[in-house]
C-alpha cells in the first residue's frame, strides 16, 4: 500500500505536513487528538501601506544574501512557469557511507567532525560537486532551511528558520569540511517578516537551497499497526538554482542492529542534475 499527500506551503511547512499525516492516521484509528487543533486568532498587527511593504521587500531582495527572488505575477496559479526543464531525482546514502564521510574528516585530523551533522556533510558534498560540474566556480550563496525546534502545538504553521551562507572562493576547489562548518556555524539568519509581507516571490531555488528534514518524524505514521517502509518528499515550483531535501532514510540492517541512512531528493535543471549524478556515481557509486 502507498499513501501520497499534496500539500501547499500556505498551509504549513514540510514539518507540518509530516505531523498532519501522522495525526490523520491517529484519527483514522479512532484516537482523538489530545487537544483542540484550533489555533487562536493572532492579534492584529499595525497595517502597513502597500508602498512601505513593497519598499521593504525590494530593499531586502536587493541584498545578495536574501533567499527569495521576485517573479512575474502568477495570479491565481500556485506555481510560476520556469524557463528551464526541472527534473527530480531521489537517492540514498547508507549509514555505512555516512560513517565513511565522517571518518574521512577524522582521518584528516579534524577532531570536530563529530559535531557536524549528516545534513551538513551531505549539503557540503553536493554543493562542491555541483560547483565542480559547472562551468564557473559554482554557487557562492546558498539558502539553508531548518526546523526551529520550538513548536508548542500540532497546529500547521510555517516555522522553518531560513539562513544563508556565502563564500568568496572557488567552491569546486574547496574542502568539504570547510563548507560543512560554514553551513553549520556561520549562517546568517533571515528576517521572515519580509517573506510574509511579500507576494510573487519564490524561495526554493532562488539560491541553491538545502532543506534539513532530519528531525522530521517521517516514519512516525502508523496504519493498522504498520509503519512506513520508505518515505520521500519533493517540492514543485522550484527556481532554476534548485533545491536539495535531506531526511531520514529507510531502516537497514548494519549487522549491529537497525540503522538509518539518509534519503536525498534533488530538484535541479536537467543538465545540472545529470552532471551532479555523474559526480556522485564516481565518488559514492549512487544510482
Automatic annotation (TrEMBL):
It comes from the Eukaryota. Coiled coil: none annotated. Transmembrane segments: none annotated. Residues 36-53 have a biased composition (Basic and acidic residues). Residues 33-59 are annotated as: Disordered. InterPro entries: CAT-like_dom_sf, Plant_Fungal_Acyltransferase. Belongs to the plant acyltransferase family. PANTHER family: PROTEIN ECERIFERUM 2, TRICHOTHECENE 3-O-ACETYLTRANSFERASE. This is Uncharacterized protein. It comes from Citrus sinensis.
Amino acid at each position: 500500500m502507498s499513501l501520497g499527500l499534496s500539500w501547499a506551503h500556505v498551509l504549513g511547512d514540510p514539518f507540518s505536513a509530516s505531523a498532519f499525516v501522522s495525526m490523520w492516521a491517529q484519527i483514522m484509528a479512532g484516537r482523538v487528538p489530545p487537544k483542540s487543533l484550533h489555533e487562536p486568532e493572532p492579534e492584529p498587527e499595525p497595517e502597513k501601506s502597500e508602498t512601505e511593504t513593497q519598499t521593504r521587500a525590494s530593499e531586502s531582495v536587493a541584498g545578495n544574501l536574501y533567499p527569495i527572488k521576485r517573479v512575474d505575477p502568477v495570479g491565481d496559479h500556485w506555481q510560476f512557469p520556469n524557463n528551464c526543464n526541472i527534473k527530480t531525482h531521489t537517492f540514498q546514502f547508507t549509514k555505512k557511507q555516512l560513517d565513511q564521510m565522517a571518518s574521512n574528516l577524522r582521518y584528516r585530523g579534524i577532531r570536530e567532525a563529530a559535531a557536524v551533522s549528516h545534513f551538513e556533510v551531505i549539503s557540503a558534498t553536493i554543493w562542491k560537486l555541483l560547483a565542480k560540474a559547472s562551468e564557473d566556480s559554482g554557487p557562492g550563496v546558498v539558502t539553508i532551511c531548518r526546523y526551529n525546534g520550538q513548536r508548542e502545538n500540532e497546529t500547521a504553521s510555517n516555522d522553518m528558520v531560513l539562513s544563508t551562507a556565502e563564500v568568496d572562493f572557488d567552491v569546486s576547489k574547496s574542502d568539504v569540511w570547510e563548507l560543512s562548518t560554514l553551513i553549520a556555524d556561520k549562517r546568517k539568519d533571515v528576517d521572515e517578516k519580509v517573506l510574509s509581507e511579500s507576494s510573487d516571490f519564490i524561495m526554493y531555488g532562488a539560491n541553491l537551497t538545502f532543506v534539513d528534514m532530519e528531525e522530521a518524524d517521517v516514519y512516525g505514521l502508523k496504519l493498522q499497526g504498520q509503519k512506513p517502509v520508505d518515505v520521500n518528499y519533493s517540492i514543485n515550483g522550484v527556481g532554476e538554482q534548485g533545491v536539495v531535501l535531506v531526511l531520514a532514510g529507510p531502516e537497514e540492517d548494519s549487522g549491529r542492529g537497525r540503522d538509518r541512512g539518509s534519503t536525498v531528493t534533488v530538484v535541479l535543471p536537467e543538465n545540472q542534475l545529470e552532471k551532479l549524478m555523474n559526480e556522485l556515481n564516481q565518488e559514492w557509486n549512487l544510482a
